[in-house]
Amino acid sequence: MPNDASVPDAAVRARLEDAARGLLYTSESDRPFTYVSLRRPTGELTPASFATAIGAPPGTPAAEQTVDAFLARHIERAPADDPAMQTLRPKYEALKAELRRVGSEVRVFRVGSIEVRCFAVADDGRGNLVGLETVSVET
Fold this sequence. Notes:
By secondary structure, the chain is α+β, with helices and mostly antiparallel strands. The protein is 34% helix and 29% strand. The chain has helices at residues 6-20, 47-53, 67-71, 83-102; strands at 24-26, 30-32, 34-39, 62-65, 107-111, 115-123, 128-137.
């Protein structure tokens, strides 16, 4: 039987995976979103400390952006004349809302270059960063 600490994480995971099901992050390549959970690094959470926490080699480029900017291509900048994108737009809005349910502040960390690993995560209140990971191809 799972301990009480694992139940909320399992519920959060299920909600995030359900919200991301069938959605792709569009860049030069379309990539799925996958669930991610890791211990929050001690000290100030910065792009560099996050990159270290996920095991990126020293010197790997790392940056941060807002969740609004991260999903803008699928929501605010979704072409009005593209019926498929307009059909998916509410699903991306729901995904953003679900990410915000994880914690009060969703942070998006971008780690790497060319194949940039993107993590939209929030502190779950139990010492973990929980959210979704995808890849943005940028040549």
